[in-house]
Design goal:
416 residues, 9 strands
């Protein structure tokens, strides 16, 4: 601003933190700064918590989801071994594993549940998924050692009221034709293990060995497709797009953003909307500065008149009150940003303390799949919040500062 000089900055900051203001003006200024502190701190903390939830979703759900799939547009893949070897030699691909996937109904002693049944080769599955690391006991290799065995998600097993060593009956979306009529195909399987990732797959996912799946679904040696792991999750869409160009048109290549992307897009949209709503708290605090400056202009009319008489320009008066308003805002923003960063780092300890004081469990792992509030502080979010608060504060100072510059010194000093 052209009128901003050393005297404007000095006088403006002196007005901001002077003890000679009226009590009412000082109270309004304190409320404005407190509102800014709470708004900025809340916004930074909430954005960090939402980043934490997104990271939890990505880490837990995508730990079981391959980076991409290669399937045939014409149905099951019969000559898949050669294709798997070709994919392993492609740039950026670090793992390939066959799979069969279908929706089934699982029946325990007293309960029925719908589930997603995936047939895998345990040895090759380790290249594309971390499900083996999520087992509560045993080894995925037991699926091959014991024919017609199954590994269930822990929540799914609890719903079916079964555990390792028990049996469940799987009903498949296939029909068996006999002389007595047509019946749905079903088979009794032995539960060999349970897995837990503390996310949605725990309640709907089940695994069998590839030979078992081929026999259950009468696919012979064919599979539904190949799972692909790339060197980097975020680079998977680009790597798989290049891979699709090198494969025949009869093969369909999809990546995790197409199968799971809607979930993460919803999380990003929710973060944006919550951020905009909470930014309104900062906006209210910023525009409280208008009230502070309007009263300050009324109090400082004589000072303004004297400065104008001494040769201060209108732009200098504007600069004084812009500096006055931004001085208040900067103090609140800095304190709010510091508080928000500290809360983001210590939110788990804060919630644990609240749970101890209140005697309740705020986040029951059986309901929320988490035991504490996750948070992931991103400095880009902190910078965005600070810049947005500064921009709103600057806008709030312009009108009162302009009104101060319009005060005519002759009219004020006439009655002095």
């Amino acid at each position: 601003m052209s009128g901003l000089s050393h005297y404007a900055l000095f006088v403006g900051l002196r007005y901001s933190f002077s003890r000679k203001r009226s009590r009412f003006t000082g109270l309004i200024a304190s409320i404005s700064m407190l509102g800014m502190v709470l708004g900025v701190a809340t916004l930074i903390t909430v954005l960090s918590v939402m980043n934490g939830f997104a990271a939890e979703l990505r880490g837990r759900i995508l730990s079981l989801v391959p980076h991409g799939y290669v399937q045939s547009a014409d149905g099951p893949l019969s000559e898949w071994s050669a294709l798997a070897e070709r994919l392993r030699n492609q740039a950026g691909v670090v793992g390939v594993a066959p799979f069969i996937d279908d929706q089934v109904i699982l029946a325990g002693p007293r309960q029925l549940r719908g589930a997603r049944l995936t047939a895998i080769d345990p040895a090759q599955e380790a290249q594309v998924s971390w499900v083996g690391n999520a087992l509560l006991g045993g080894d995925m290799a037991e699926l091959l050692a014991e024919p017609f065995s199954i590994v269930l998600g822990s929540a799914l097993a609890a719903a079916l009221e079964v555990g390792p060593g028990d049996t469940v009956e799987v009903t498949l979306p296939r029909l068996t034709i006999t002389p007595l009529g047509t019946f749905p195909r079903s088979k009794r399987l032995t539960v060999s293990g349970l897995f837990r990732v503390n996310a949605q797959p725990d309640s709907q996912q089940a695994y069998v060995s590839l030979p078992t799946g081929q026999r259950l679904l009468a696919l012979g040696e064919a599979v539904d497709g190949l799972q692909v792991a790339t060197r980097d999750l975020m680079a998977a869409p680009e790597i798989l797009a290049d891979l699709a160009l090198a494969l025949p048109d009869s093969l369909v290549v999809t990546n995790w953003t197409q199968t799971q992307g809607s979930l993460f897009r919803a999380v990003r949209m929710e973060k944006l909307m919550v951020g905009l709503l909470l930014l309104s708290v900062v906006a209210v605090a910023a525009f409280n500065i208008v009230s502070t400056l309007v009263m300050s202009v009324a109090e400082k009319r004589r000072d303004i008149a004297v400065l104008r008489t001494l040769g201060a320009r209108a732009s200098g008066i504007v600069a004084i009150f812009v500096a006055h308003g931004l001085g208040l805002a900067l103090f609140g923003i800095a304190l709010g940003a510091l508080l928000g960063v500290v809360l983001s780092w210590q939110i788990a300890a804060v919630t644990a303390t609240l749970e101890n004081w209140l005697g309740v469990k705020l986040f029951d792992p059986a309901v929320y799949f988490i035991s504490e509030l996750p948070a992931r502080l991103m400095w880009g979010d902190v910078a965005a919040v600070v810049l947005a608060a500064l921009a709103l504060s600057l806008l709030a100072t312009l009108y009162p500062a302009w009104r101060a510059s319009r005060i005519a010194p002759a009219e004020v000093l006439r009655y002095e």
